[in-house]
Write a structure and sequence with these properties.
globular; TIM Barrel; 2 domains; alpha/beta
């Protein structure tokens, strides 16, 4: 590089393409998630690669996205999503169980182009990863439920709204995201359950998901240690530490006072989230039985899925009673600590239904390879919970899009390395058990 003299000493000539000083001059802060070139000065940066925000450079995997969410969230909020029940053995097993299975690639079959699409209940999805129901998404980012629904729709996959969403299901439907599913529970007042089904039908949700493993609330000890409450209340120590989570606090400072369980406000005649949260456990009915599945099947004419199935006999019974789909799930380890890992329970459930209805897997999905393993064991698709919340906490809708894109890229890469061109080619011959 040519040199010029400064005070008698050679000095490198200023290069407008690489100088950090020029970068500060020629860049401007965008409205949402990054920096953009000033139009009049962009000519100095023709060869510069597209700039990305720092958080995106750091979050090269779902594990890295989790670390970023931990960095930006107050600890009680992060642990509310991240934690499990009691000793968190089932939470750990959900992820660890994937390491018991190894992929056996056949690269000579050729896979220059890969098709990640799947069909589910007549809907064509561009990705075999769905977003499962997670309560209080609006606690992680303003408008969290609608932001997530929009990201899922743009990615060509399904968003399942939680019964415990901050906004009512009608608001989520108004976002225009499709396909969309709705989660329901069985309540002591069966009329409340029927109301959910009828509201979901009126709002044109595509499927109903009955969660069967949450009739008693799990013992989530991280929340107890943190003193987590709904709505969140921060003591002096937590407030002092809030300086490190300033971005979250600024975003949420007006939202916190408005957060509630939107689907329960009219039914309970209260809008205060604290009042609703205290009453919700008493609404659930531990006497839930197959008769309630039959009743819901009569009330709801669209696809009906059971979420929380781990035993093959329950899968057979569901099939006999007209259920349209099974979600093998242990609630992410948040309910019964010591329960079997979801992926470990998957093969027996798949065998029980013998291909007559689709089986989905929920729990422990952190890599594209995990998705491929689940599909090889017979799952039609997988649901994620925590990963999309981590993305939401970091960057809102853009963060959820990023999380889904991480899965898309990893699934595509694994398929290519294994010599697979279409999801339909994935089968048990791809796996070897350790």
């Amino acid at each position: 590089m040519p040199h010029v003299k400064a005070f008698g000493k050679p000095r490198k000539r200023y290069n407008p393409r690489t100088s950090p000083i020029c970068a500060l001059i020629c860049l401007k802060k965008g409205k949402d998630d990054g920096w953009t070139l000033r139009p009049k000065r962009a000519k100095h940066f023709e060869a510069m690669s597209e700039l990305v925000p720092a958080w995106r450079r750091r979050t090269f995997s779902i594990a890295a996205l989790r670390r970023e969410a931990q960095r930006v969230l107050p600890r009680p909020i992060f642990d509310f999503a991240d934690g499990g029940a009691e000793d968190e053995r089932t939470l750990d097993r959900n992820e660890a169980a994937f390491s018991e299975l190894s992929l056996v690639p056949r690269p000579l079959r050729g896979s220059a182009e890969r098709d990640l699409s799947v069909e589910l209940f007549g809907k064509s999805l561009r990705l075999p990863v769905l977003i499962g129901p997670t309560g209080l998404a609006g606690l992680f980012w303003p408008g969290g439920e609608c932001a997530t629904a929009r990201a899922a729709s743009a990615a060509g996959t399904i968003y399942c709204a939680s019964h415990a969403s901050v906004v009512p299901l009608e608001t989520i439907a108004a976002c225009g995201a499709s396909p969309r599913w709705m989660q329901v529970f069985v309540y002591r007042d069966r009329g409340f359950t029927r109301d959910f089904a009828e509201r979901a039908a009126a709002a044109e949700f595509d499927a109903l998901v009955l969660t069967i493993d949450n009739q008693l609330t799990g013992n989530r000890e991280r929340d107890l240690r943190n003193g987590f409450t709904i709505p969140p209340r921060f003591g002096p120590i937590a407030l002092a530490g809030m300086a490190l989570k300033f971005g979250w606090f600024i975003r949420m400072r007006h939202e916190l006072r408005r957060i509630t369980f939107g689907n329960y406000v009219d039914r309970l005649g209260a809008s205060d989230i604290g009042t609703i949260a205290q009453r919700m456990p008493s609404l659930l009915d531990p006497s839930l039985s197959w008769r309630d599945v039959d009743a819901l099947r009569n009330w709801w004419r669209g696809p009906l899925l059971l979420k929380g199935v781990l035993h093959p006999e329950d899968a057979k019974e569901a099939l006999a009673r007209g259920v349209d789909g099974i979600i093998v799930s242990n609630h992410g380890g948040r309910q019964l600590d010591g329960a079997v890992a979801s992926v470990a329970a998957l093969p027996a459930v798949v065998e029980a239904v013998a291909g007559r209805i689709p089986v989905l897997l929920d729990g422990g999905i952190r890599r594209g390879a995990d998705v491929i393993i689940a599909l090889a064991l017979g799952a039609r698709a997988c649901l994620i919970g925590r990963p999309h919340l981590w993305g939401l906490a970091v960057a809102g809708e853009v963060g959820v899009t990023h999380a889904l894109d991480l899965f898309r890229r990893e699934i595509d890469r694994v398929m290519g390395l294994c010599g697979i061109t279409r999801i339909a080619e994935i089968g048990p011959d791809l796996l070897m058990r350790r």
